[in-house]
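Worked example 2:
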Amino acid sequence: MKKIPLSEIYRKVIHSVSIFIPLSYLWLIKDQSIMIILLTVLCSVSLLLEFLRNKSKTVKFLFNNMFIKMLRKNEKKGTLTGATWLLIGSLITTIFFPIYIVVPALIYLSIGDSFAAIIGKAYPFGKIGVKSITGSISGALASSIFAISVNKILPIEIIIIGSIIAMLIEIIPIKLNDNLTIPFISALVMNLSLNLL
């Protein structure tokens, strides 16, 4: 087992806390319009903070004091943080798909991506770039189990297909941020698969 950088553990613990988005949608909000409004507000606040940390020395100082240990190199230089991309990905997915597709897709993002990163760094077997097959498999398993446990509508095979697609997207080195591509593409594939059944 390889030692995992503390910064990555912090980052993924916070990332996994985003599970509150799909669970609150499933159990509390349940209304697509309200969820879209809430995510739009969160995205707006996050984008404003991103703008201010690049324009205001005071905001940058405060932001760095709180989050510098978790930021990746490109984020330190001023690009959008993973948290902002996560909110954008959640919003876009919620706009285009029904709740029973959105919830597992966002679970793949919060649980699957976190497991893939931590397990992949601890047991980096089958490396593809900086990521590993062991991470992707663990992410698919963890997110499938979690999504199945809260699922009430989708066939289990659709959830499993979605988790596999999500972790394939996570491991493939593409330029678009995977906090955007994981939920949207997995939701798209689940939606298409469901229509084919």
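The mean pLDDT is 90. Residues 32-55 form the longest helix (24 residues).
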